[in-house]
UniProtKB/TrEMBL annotation:
Matching InterPro entries: ADH-like_C, ADH-like_N, ER, GroES-like_sf, NAD(P)-bd_dom_sf, QOR-like, Quin_OxRdtase/zeta-crystal_CS
Keyword Oxidoreductase: yes
Record-given protein name: Quinone oxidoreductase
PANTHER family reported for this sequence: QUINONE OXIDOREDUCTASE PIG3-RELATED, QUINONE OXIDOREDUCTASE-RELATED
Keyword Manganese in annotation: no
Location of the Enoyl reductase (ER) domain: 11-322
Taxonomy of the source species: Bacteria, Bacillati, Actinomycetota, Actinomycetes, Mycobacteriales
Classification via Gene3D superfamilies: Medium-chain alcohol dehydrogenases, catalytic domain, NAD(P)-binding Rossmann-like Domain
Keyword annotations of the record: NADP, Oxidoreductase
NCBIfam families for the chain: PRK10754.1 (NF008024)
Superkingdom of this protein's organism: Bacteria
CDD domains reported in the protein's UniProt record: QOR2 (cd05286)
Length: 324
């Protein structure tokens, strides 16, 4: 038996229940993992609220790191005792132990602790595809990053600096601005006090930025479009404030023949070779100390309700993990 967070209906954090579950043995292509740390991500709230559909009742969570305890028939890439991490479906990472498909696993280098792996796998791979696949960012480019003091934000700014990219970040408070600057943000806009698009134009001699990376969604969409330079790209990779509004084609022309994309991590790690390449580069930077993973919140797994409340309130910074 193991313990896990499950939910039987969509709604507020209060729908999350701490329960005993039967784990069982791994089947064809599966492994059984004992978790050492579990990641807390905004995507978890999307499932809980129903923005992302799931068959109920369901487990919660898409990211964790731990040790393989048993492997099922047909599993050749892993064996008991291996240190692994993962992100993505199926749901169920909020658990002390679970069975899942081996194809989703990524081996953890010895230099990376379990907590760091659980805090960085989704955020780091997201940053990896944003910077290495979506747009061919070059040294000297200027980009705008919303939520610059968040988990993705702090990894992104450090990685962008390695590439010679100038980052303008948005945050909600001076405290978060200090965190963003400490992790490589060149300029910071406190969006609760300043008009983002106007400040971006001021900082770029009226031209705008090459790319806007927007994980906020509904409340930032308009300012993100207005912050782009001619033929720039708006990357809407999250919806923390709600889904982006419907897009009229003429909007794109009137804002400088700009582009909009709404990518999902799953489509950038679906190919095993591409997932291996993206994760290898990420792990290399972290293991070498070029990118630091900021774990600024730790919770007990049975405290998931409070963790979700903190996350949705905007009070967290950096990465958050559940530990045992």
């Amino acid at each position: 038996m193991a313990k896990a967070i499950r939910y039987y209906e969509i709604g507020s954090p209060d729908v999350l229940k701490w329960e005993w579950i039967e784990v069982g043995d791994p089947g064809l292509g599966e492994v059984r993992i004992r978790h050492e740390a579990v990641g807390l991500n905004f995507a978890d709230t999307y499932y809980r609220t129903g923005l992302y559909p799931a068959a109920l009742p369901a487990g919660m969570g898409v990211e964790a790191a731990g040790i393989i305890e048993a492997v099922g028939e047909g599993v050749t890439d892993f064996q008991p005792g291996d240190r692994v991490t993962y992100t993505g479906s199926p749901l169920g990472a909020y658990s002390t132990e679970r069975v899942m498909p081996a194809k989703h696993l990524i081996a953890i280098p010895e230099a990376i602790p379990f907590e760091i792996a659980a805090a960085m796998t989704m955020r780091g791979l997201t940053t990896s595809y944003l910077l290495r696949r979506i747009w061919d960012v070059q040294a000297g480019d200027t980009v705008l990053l919303h939520a610059a003091a968040g988990g993705v934000g702090l990894i992104f700014t450090q990685w962008a600096k390695l590439l010679g990219v100038k980052v303008i970040g948005t945050v909600s408070s001076e405290h978060k601005a200090e965190i963003a600057r400490a992790n490589g943000c060149d300029e910071v806009i406190i969006y609760t006090q300043e008009d983002v698009a106007s400040r971006v134009r001021d900082m770029t001699d009226g031209k705008g930025v090459s790319v806007v990376y927007d994980s906020i969604g509904a409340t930032t969409f308009d300012s993100s479009l207005k912050s782009l330079k001619r033929r720039g790209l708006l990357v809407c990779f999250g919806t923390a404030s709600g889904p982006i509004p419907p897009i009229e084609a003429m909007q794109l022309a009137l804002n400088g023949s700009v582009y909009v994309t709404r990518p999902a991590l799953a489509d950038y790690i679906a190919d095993p070779a591409e997932k291996a390449a993206l994760s290898a580069e990420l792990f290399e930077h972290v293991a070498a100390g070029r990118i630091a993973i900021n774990i600024n919140q730790r919770y007990a797994l049975d405290d998931a309700v409070r963790a979700h409340r903190d996350l949705e309130s905007g009070s967290t910074t950096g990465s958050s993990v559940f530990t045992f």
